[in-house]
Amino acid sequence: MIQRIQSLYLLMVVALMSVTLFAPIAMFTVASGEVFTLSAFSLSSDMQSQSTVWMGILLSLATALPLVTIFLFKNRVLQVRLCAVEIVLLLGCIAFMAIYFWLSGANALEDAIVEHRHFGWSAIMPIVALVFTSLAARATFKDEILVRSLDRIR
Question: pLDDT digit string (tens) for 50-76?
Fold first, then answer.
């Protein structure tokens, strides 16, 4: 199970998405000097906060699914399909982050002028996780092809 390369790729995805889940994703500075921090479950400052619970749920699912996929090592076809679902979840996470980053949570910022936008390191993690997930799907598919070819030889 762990000795397979796709399991290591999926463990990397879990680690990367865990960082994204718990670290700040972006920071915004408005004209008044107030600093807003975007995390998985909130867009907040010292004075106010807005819930980003849907992004948090999506990030949580994108963190848990590769862990489940690792333990389904006997069903390689299902593993490939779950990797495809994970890729869709990661694209959704990236889309949510981009929306919150560019719109800067307009409701929370109350039409304040955003002077500076800054991505945190955890904003890059879903993109790297996307690469690792595609590598895991590819390795799992190659395993399935190998097993089928060996079945033909017998």
Answer: 778 888 999 999 999 999 999 998 898
Domain spans of the chain? Answer: 5-146
Q: CATH number for 5-146: choose from 1.10.150.240, 3.50.50.60, 1.20.140.150, 3.20.20.70.
A: 1.20.140.150
Which of 96-103's residues contact partners 24+ apart within 8 Å by CB, and which partners? 96/52, 96/54, 96/55, 96/58, 97/25, 97/26, 97/38, 97/55, 97/123, 97/126, 100/25, 100/26, 100/38, 100/43, 100/52, 100/55, 101/25, 101/26, 101/38
Q: E strands along 17-113, which residues?
A: 26-30, 35-38, 42-44, 49-51
d(CA 86, CA 70): 12
Which residue has tokens 């895991």? 136
Euclidean distance between CA atoms 76 and 91, whole angstroms? 23
Mean pLDDT of 31-41: 82
Is the distance from CB of 104 to CB of 45 less than 8 angstroms?
no
Q: Give me the DSSP letters along 99-125.
A: HHHHH--HHHHTTPPEEEEEE-GGGTH
The model's pTM is 0.86
